[in-house]
Amino acid sequence: MTPLVDNEAFRKALDFLSESTKYGPPNELNMDVSDTRPLFVSGRCALNLDWGDVGTLAIDPATSKVIDKTGASIMPGSKEVLNRDTVSSRPALPIPARTPSTASTHAPYAAFGGWGGGVNAAADAKVKDAAYAFFSYMTQPAQSNADVTIGKTGFNPYRMSQLTYGDIWKNAGMSETAAKSYLGAIRRA
What 3-state class would DSSP assign to 146? Predict the structure, then answer.
């Protein structure tokens, strides 16, 4: 349980954060997604680090000024990573399936951790049945295919069938070009 914050790799990450804030909006360090998303979809912010929600928020004709003007990418990789044994930086090992020939590593970005559902084991049987029915409904293709196309739901594509351009994306108003960028970044992550 020793914190891994007093080391060369962590200091480099802080240096990067310090440098990146020079190019962000005022008060950037105190902003959260409810502040940055409107800046991005209004065209007032050129780069946004976020979950996949921003890709679908960007196609909402009611709020977005950047329809078909955005791209998506996986998180930038690093040529160095923390060696936990020596608590120092070491060169990253390439991940052939995800990276080009340069040695770089990419960490998936799922800071929120994803969605999950649970029911107290001591709950009444009717409550358990209702919770099961609700979770089943939310995750079946008919509902989940709609939910992943609406940014404000917080659902991102998670089924293989949702990760390719098709009717669900076309009907949601996402162009094939935007979908290739958005869905491609999610697949690579």
Answer: helix
